[in-house]
Amino acid sequence: MDELNETGEPILLRRGSKVEAALVPIALFRERFVDALSQDELRAVRERVRTRRVRPKGDLSTLATLRRLRGYDDQDGPAPGAKRER
């Protein structure tokens, strides 16, 4: 373990003449495997979001559509404290 920490190089474990395993520093392991998986997962999530994105219909922005659905007729919305008619 001291050699692994000092050199930072992988240590190969052999059974006879065949390499069976390798010990690697944790930083190298994270860089190659954990971070790579995280990047792949992040790319997959971004792609799912991109494919599910809904584009606004017509000329209205999503904010304008939301304001219209809430019953705001003007750009500033109802006056503070004003009650909306239902």
What descriptors fit this protein?
86 residues, alpha+beta, two-stranded antiparallel ribbon, 48% helix, rod-shaped
Describe the protein's architecture and organization.
The chain is of the alpha+beta class. The protein has one domain (2-69). It has helices at residues 2-7, 26-52, 62-69; strands spanning 11-15, 18-23. Strand 1 (11-15) and strand 2 (18-23) form a beta hairpin. The mean pLDDT is 80.
Output the number of helix runs. 3
Number of strands: 2
Mind describing the biggest β-sheet?
2 strands, antiparallel
| Alpha-beta classification | alpha+beta
How far is the first residue's CA from the last residue's CA? 73 Å
Query: Stretches where pLDDT falls below 50 for ≥5 residues?
Result: none
Helix-strand sequence = HEEHH
Cα shape:
rod-shaped
Instruction: Kindly report the spatial arrangement of strands forming the biggest sheet.
Output: 1-2
Mean pLDDT: 80
Portion in helices: 40-55%
Number of domains: 1
